[in-house]
Design brief:
With 119 residues, the chain is α+β, with helices and mostly antiparallel strands. It has a domain of 72 residues: 2-Layer Sandwich (Beta-lactamase Inhibitory Protein, Chain:B, domain 1). The protein has 2 helices and 6 strands. The protein is elongated, with a radius of gyration of 23 Å.
Length: 119
């Protein structure tokens, strides 16, 4: 049973990584060769602008995704005497994921490379 759970976990991680790579390929195909002005017009101002040693800039966008349930609930467990009990509260489960995407722009204002990292 434990081996099945490990295998299921490994397969899930592999599928998630494949989905991320597919998204990154689409992003690269969409933006490499286009201009900085087009990128900013569509995505808005970047979170950070860094100088590039080759004379251009690196535009960094940070996207945060929150998944899970923030809804909590109350429960009770009976006590020894009538009317006694213990109240419990569950806060739910929330996961925050951040994606850092860097667009490398050359000195002519053209996007030449894109990198992305999930944290």
């Amino acid at each position: 049973m434990l081996n099945r759970l490990k295998l299921s976990g490994i397969l899930l991680i592999a599928l998630l990584l494949a989905a991320c790579n597919s998204t990154m390929d689409e992003e690269r195909d969409t933006w490499v060769g286009r201009t900085e002005a087009e990128l900013i017009a569509e995505k808005g101002q970047p979170n950070r602008v860094l100088p590039n040693r080759r004379g251009g800039v690196i535009l960094q966008y940070i996207r945060s995704d929150v998944t899970g349930s923030t809804a909590g609930g109350f429960g009770s467990a009976g006590g020894g005497n009538a009317g006694e009990g213990v109240a419990t509260y569950s806060a739910g489960s929330v996961t925050t994921t951040q994606r850092f995407t860097a667009y490398y722009v050359d000195e002519k204002g053209v996007i030449t490379k894109i990198t992305s990292k999930m944290m």
